[in-house]
Amino acid sequence: MRTLTYYVATTLDGFIADPSGGFEFFPVEGDHMYHLMEEYPETLPVHIRDQLGVTSPGKHFDAVVMGRRTWEPSLSVGLTSAYPHLQQYVFSKTLAQAPDDTVTLVATDPLEYVRNLKKQDGRGIWLCGGATLAGELLAEIDELVLKVNPIIAGNGIPLFRTGFEPHYFELSESRVFDSGVVVNHLAAKR
């Protein structure tokens, strides 16, 4: 059975983006970036992969799920398929058609859809974001890979947007980088 991993950058106070959805304030330089590019090359969008000459299919994921608001920034710069090297699923109840045939739009229940994806053959599924989708999929998340940045944002889009219902995770690995970024791997306790 495939696993669902929420692999995401966050601030110390738990925000994955600024209030309008921007994430430019996260550092893209530093020793943590070399590790992440080597360990998770499949999470690099196509234009970055091309610039860096990355051809590796990656080790962890062959599919990515994301909410519409997470997908829209790439659309705004003319990138209709940010991850053509992965199966791409965008959850939206407002979009009628994807502008690229490598992207599957999903308007049905995210939890049921992802449960079915996990039953299919393949490598892991990357939950790219955002907060609402992560909240809806929380019961199916097998692993968190949190890139905790030494930043206090004060406000923004949280890791999860959901009601109070504790879900427990166990730290399986933690790596501290000179940049101040800490990458934590946490497994769901079920």
From TrEMBL:
Bacterial bifunctional deaminase-reductase C-terminal domain mapped to chain residues: 3-183
Domain of life the protein comes from: Bacteria
UniProt protein name: Dihydrofolate reductase family protein
Gene3D superfamilies to which the protein is assigned, alphabetical: Dihydrofolate Reductase, subunit A (3.40.430.10)
Pfam families, per database record: RibD_C (PF01872)
Transmembrane segment boundaries: none
